[in-house]
Amino acid sequence: MKQILVPTDFSENSFNALAYAVAFYKNTACTFYIMNIGALSESGIATNGFALNYNAIDLPSKMALLEEKIQEISKNNTSKLHLFYGLQEFGNFIDIIRKTIVEKKIDLIVMGTKGTSTLKNTFIGSNTEDVITKVAANLLIVPKKCKFQPLHKIVFPTNFNNFYSFDILQSLTEILRISNGVLEVMSVMVTEKLNSSQEKNKNYLHEYLDEVFEDRYHFYSEKNKNVKDAIEDFTITHAIDMTIMAAKNLNYLQQLLFNSTIKRISKHTKIPVFVLHE
What we know:
Structural class: alpha/beta
Largest sheet: 10 strands, mixed
Radius of gyration: 20 Å
Pfam families: Usp
Strand order of the largest sheet: 5-2-1-6-7-12-11-8-9-10
Family: Belongs to the universal stress protein A family.
InterPro entries: Universal_stress_UspA (IPR006015), UspA (IPR006016)
CATH architecture of the largest domain: 3-Layer(aba) Sandwich
Protein name: Nucleotide-binding universal stress protein, UspA family
Order of helices and strands: EHEEEHEHEHEEHEHEHEHHE
């Protein structure tokens, strides 16, 4: 059974991300852990030297809201393969995520994009960015108001600089088998030709896909383009339904996600991004 963690701040974005994941894994046995992480100051525990004073007056409210939401989700979910549990934690966001991954044996984290921010006008929020860079777990990022639709075409941007480990290929294979989609492997050439290491990695990926998904993949190469522009333009011209990226390919990740404004992303990227870790 697949173990999926969905952090929520009770926003529309977080529950929309959950709805997308539920639809994507409709035929897969899954346990969804819907977790709210509050600041330690909200925990009802006040410290005074070595003494701890417990004041849990406000603690039940968020948990009650979470349980109410889970009942609603369970009622509307038609799959008998899914289980839903609510979790309430307090403390540092990343520390809690890491602890939960170990305790619940989490396979995947699902998060929604924040949509807007008065602090930093970027596509993803700081929590999502921290999860990508600081947590070694696969992450599905679902844009605001993105609704699930069958995945016909999935793009895998790469520069072929990194070797494709078993974990990366296994995750890639799972997504393709669940979606029954076609994988479009695209690279942006910043030099005239690939070096020997890049050629080796490309050939390895080609041989793997040819063996596992014959006739369900293509390779494309774009030249003389900014990486971010090339990926976004490719997404539009090829009617892409999802982007898959390897977390260790930080150059592509940073350019597409971390340095992209909402205004630009909203025009070009309204599709989920699956970030794969080893």
